[in-house]
Amino acid sequence: MADSMETQQEHSSSNNEAGTSGRKGRAAWVAAVVLIAAALSFGAAGIAIWLTAAQTDNHGTNGKPAYDGYTYVRQEAEGVVMHALVTEPSKVTLEAVRGNVAGTPYYGVNGGFFYNGMLLSMAIINDQPVGGKPQTYGSGYSNVKFARGTLVWDGATDQLSVQVVSNADELKVTDRAHYWAQGGISMRPLDDAGWRQQADAEQAPFPDDDRLRTAAAYDKDGKLYLIVSQTKTTLATFRQAIIEAYGEMEDGIFLDGDGSSQLRAFEATLPGDGRQVEQMIRLKNPGENR
Question: What is the pTM of this model?
Answer without folding.
Answer: 0.79
